[in-house]
Model the fold of this input.
Amino acid sequence: MWRLFSMLGRKRALPVQITVTHPAAAKMFRIAQRALPNESGGVLIGTCSETGALISVTVGPGPKALHGPTSFTRDGEYAQLHVERHRRQSPGQLDYVAEWHSHPLPCAPSPTDSASMRAISRSPEYRRPIPLLVLCILASSGAWELRGYTYRGRRLQEVALVITDAETSGSEEAGHCNTEPGSRAE
Ligand SMILES: [Zn+2]
Done:
């Protein structure tokens, strides 16, 4: 079953779609709900291809994260630990894909969100010149929704985001999101 939460229905659609597995989405919703009235978040792990990202693992905030009603800073060591563990367990497959955090107030990405994605786009550590952000937004209906964004052209732009129950075949070779050739530091 496919549920389309947001879609760019324009001719100039970006060649990026974020697909989130149902368990990964459900975990974001659980973490976001538990943190109310504050924000929470973390990093997302999965695979990337030329056309988009498949997110299969949600990593939570970590014990040293800072939570406020309109701010969130994840525990960097905790995120790093989880990303490295998944890299080791599936060499060349699972890797860091995106940042995520919740917005208990139904608002669009903030200037802080834009600035932090800009910093990631310029950081050689992340190797993500076009980084991805997933926002978990509490709608007025009381339900959580996911929206996807990418930072390019000096601003955050919304991209299509789909939650899927389907197991993706994995026939496409996993690549590394937006990684420029030769830019891997390892
Ligand atoms: Zn935000």
Observations:
- The two ends are 38 Å apart (CA to CA).
- Residues 101, 103, 109-110, 113 surround zinc ion (CB under 6 Å).
